[in-house]
Amino acid sequence: MRATFANIYLDNLRHNILEIKKIIPKATKICIPVKADAYGHGAEAISKESLKCGVDYFAVAAVAEGVQLRQANISIPILVLSLPNPSEFDEIIDNNLTPVIFDSQLIEMFATAAQKHNKVVSVHLKVDTGMGRIGCKIEDALSLAKEISNNKWLSLAGIFTHFPVADSLDEKDKEYTLTKIKSFNNLIQQIKAEGINPGICHCSNSAGIFCYPEACFDMVRPGLITYGYYPGDITAEYLNSIGKKVELKPVMELRSRIVAINHMEKGKSVSYGREWIATEDSYIGVLPLGYADGLLRNYGKNLLVAIEGKGYPICGRICMDQCMVYLGNTCSIERWHEVIVFGPKEKGALQDASDIATRANTIPYEVTCGIDKRVPRIYIGG
């Protein structure tokens, strides 16, 4: 096996799902987003383990992601969150995936495709409450719900939205989110008043689950927290301060090995651009891990990797397939020593994906999603 690999701790995944279940109503369903290969963790393995924990739904972004799960014998409902190409409609119907609909043209197109297959297709109506991506205006949602319910080839299986600032503690953002929750709730009541069953109503992402219990409705969609990270401004410390003790554990750990050790004389440089120059005679370790694996160049500054419990900094620019680590002016590290780049701190890492994201001015989603598929995943604790 390659010297660079990712451990996926399934026991941490189970722990996180149980933590989520502790803070939502018992009757509330859970939809785990497994899009982008389960945020880089491996959609098939994550889905199968999540099923053991009693999740009710999965969500993907691409039709091909849903088809992959069906081919892996995943039978529970799978919601396709992004708009598919018309050429994919047949795949959606053949694989019993649940598409998102948000305008009359889509209603007509999916109804035509469903009729061709002689099959009623379950759909979810997407309402835009501030993201500005896909979804109908809230004032148009009732009429669209009527269109769907009156179409014999379509079944309204759900209605949902997504909040843009639920992870913010800014008072204006909190007020904005509360306003959108109220609007969404009013819409549901209007639909029911027309004698239409809206199906499963859902809107809460990870932050919504923590901060807006009134928005749990019939189902929640915990994305980032399933994989062990707190969303936006919502930290473990903040949750403790409001009486919600939630302990999340990172599921992914990125490891590699020292494959070479070079003695660098004072004044010698390392990597492209000669940005790092030895100020004294030094030892440099080489890792077979680079930006093509997902360790981006801008992660290099202030990045410490763990070797036998001690932190060693990346030195010089991260290359496509390799990076270098400063081992000091004396060296007790040997070739083939294992290195932990990030992961659960209780497993020996000095940083997790959130720490890297903070220093790189990004988000932990981008760190875990960015770990390339050429990095083998090893599933532990299944």
Summarize the structure.
Strand 3 (57-60), helix 4 and strand 4 form a beta-alpha-beta unit. With 382 residues, the protein is of the alpha/beta class.
Task: Show the helix and strand layout.
Blueprint (H helix, E strand, L loop, with lengths): L4 E5 H14 L5 E5 L1 H5 L3 H10 L4 E4 L2 H9 L6 E3 L8 H6 L5 E2 L2 H14 L3 E6 L14 H9 L4 E7 L10 H23 L6 E5 L1 H6 L7 E2 L15 H6 L10 E6 L2 E5 L4 E2 L5 E2 L4 E6 L16 E4 L2 E6 L7 E6 L9 E5 L10 H7 L4 H6 L7 E4 L2
Structure, described:
- The structure is a single chain.
- With 382 residues, the chain is an alpha/beta fold.
- It has twelve helices and 19 strands.
- The strands form four sheets. It has an eight-stranded parallel sheet.
- The longest helix has 23 residues, at 171-193.
- The radius of gyration is 24 Å and the shape is elongated.
Q: Kindly state the mean pLDDT as a whole number?
A: 96
Lateral strand order in the biggest sheet:
4-3-2-9-8-7-6-5
Share of residues in helices: 25-40%
Quote the beta fraction. 15-25%
What characteristic shape results from the CA principal axes?
elongated
How many helices? Answer: 12
Radius of gyration: 24 Å
State the end-to-end distance.
20 Å
List how many beta strands DSSP finds.
Answer: 19
What structural class do you assign from the helix and strand content? alpha/beta
- Main sheet overview: 8 strands, parallel
